[in-house]
Amino acid sequence: MTREITLNDLMEAHEKKERVLVDVRSPGEFEEGSIPGSINIPVFDNEERAEIGTIYKQVGQEQAKARGLEIFSAKLPVFVEQLKALDAPISVFCWRGGMRSKAAATFTDFMGLDVNRLTGGIRTYRQWVVQALEDYEFSAQLLVLNGYTGSGKTAILRKLQEENEPVLDLEGYAGHRGSIFGQIGLVPNNQKKFDSLLITDLRRFKDSPYLLMEGESRRIGRVHMPDFLFEKKERAPQIFVKLPIDVRVQNILDDYHPDESKDAFLEAFSRIERRMHTPVAKDIRDHLEAGEFREAFKMLLVHYYDPRYEHSISRHEERNDVVIEAETLEEAYLKVKETLAQYTVKK
After folding, report:
1. pLDDT band at 320 (very low <50, low <70, confident <90, very high)
2. How far apart are CA 77 and CA 132, in angstroms?
3. From CA 216, how far away is CA 177, in angstroms rounded?
4. What's the total number of domains in the chain?
5. Does 209 reside within a domain?
6. Are strands 219-220 and 223-224 parallel, antiparallel or unpaired?
7. pLDDT tens-digit profile of 170-209?
8. Does the pLDDT of residue 305 top 80, yes or no?
């Protein structure tokens, strides 16, 4: 009889780092979304899972079980050694808390490891994520870091993250930078992954006096920001960063490394080319094709991105939000930190 653990107990133990979470589904399923912080030690690889699924559909359940047992038995010694190497209490899970997690927990428990399995599997976790986001209520002050394209907002947020500041890294959750070029060099996440990462950090920062996020649009790459967060963002105080245009261009070059993805930039540019005046668009395309990215990005900022921000800037200034003017990214970062200091005491 395998021991089971409820989702609430598992989440509490995971947050306290008392148990290691092991997703025993196939690598393909794991990539589609899992519990943040879990590791993948699959019972079946992608091909084996597909084979068993075919047997189940074409022959029957018993034959599929028999083939699954045959495959898992052959790899059991290696599987057990992988779990042993974690040197910690373990909670395993599969999709519905069924055969795969039961087999994994049963055999490893027999070998003397401290192993239990999640009741209901990751399907239960996914249902919890959806409900948790629907029920979430802010107790912290939400602050929004905004600014022209290339103002180093993401770099500032990542540096604050390194200092354990309460940052909601929406672009990181989405695997996308939020612009027309935002997917270049990244692997975009699906909504399941985005939601899981978001609620994990919302819970992690539940006692923080403030939360800081970037001024994203409702859609970020392949995912959508939850309504409650988007509406809160629209009303939240803004910290608006202004940097010289040449500094912004350099920030973009440092972030995107366009010389490594020239074709991807040309393909992405084709999606906005028609929205621009023809002579300007042609000049930008010529620069991109010639690998003259500094010139291309400067023209994109002046003729495309900056005009789209003008209305936003005037709205922020009318609301008396904080506007930070700096000559370098480092100076902007330090001024953002000074601004955040006034929110460190929870009211």
Report:
1. low
2. 39
3. 9
4. 2
5. yes
6. antiparallel
7. 999 999 887 778 778 888 899 999 999 999 999 999 899 9
8. yes
Last residue within a domain, chosen from 130, 160, 178: 130
Asked if residue 347 belongs to a domain, the reply is no
| CA–CA gap between residue 340 and residue 346 (Å, rounded) | 12
CATH number at residue 307: 3.40.50
Tell me: the pLDDT tens digits for 29-79?
999 999 999 999 999 999 999 999 999 999 999 999 999 999 999 999 999
Higher pLDDT, residue 107 or 346: 107
Query: Which residue among 10, 90, 94, 236 is the active-site one?
Result: 94
How much is the pLDDT for 347? 43
What's the pTM? 0.90
Q: Indicate if 146 and 287 belong to the same structural domain.
A: yes
- Host domain of residue 232: 136-341
Across the chain, what does the average pLDDT equal? 91
Of the residues 130, 152, 175, which one is the last residue of a structural domain?
A: 130
Identify residue 210 by its one-letter amino acid code: Y
Query: CA 91 to CA 275: how far, in whole Å?
Result: 52
* Whether pLDDT at 210 is above 70: yes
Block residue for tokens 């330090």: 334
C-alpha to C-alpha distances, 311 to 70, 306, 327, nearest whole angstrom? 64, 10, 23
- Beta-bridged to residue 21, according to DSSP, are 91
Q: Is 286 a catalytic residue?
A: no
Looking at the fold, whether 56 and 77 belong to one and the same domain comes out as yes
Q: 94 and 147: one domain?
A: no
- Tell whether 180 and 312 lie within a shared domain: yes
* CATH code for the domain in which residue 62 is found: 3.40.250.10
Are residues 181 and 303 located together in one domain of the fold?
yes
Q: How far apart are the first and last CA of the chain?
A: 50
DSSP 273: G
Is the pLDDT confidence value at 233 over 70?
Answer: yes
Contact criterion met (CB below 8 Å) for 45 and 28: no
Q: Please report whether residue 346 resides in a domain.
A: no
Q: Is the pLDDT of residue 316 over 60?
A: no
Q: How far apart are CA 4 and CA 18, in angstroms?
A: 16
**Using an 8 Å Cβ cutoff, are 22 and 41 in contact?**
yes
Report residue 105 CA to chain centroid gap.
29
In a domain? residue 282: yes
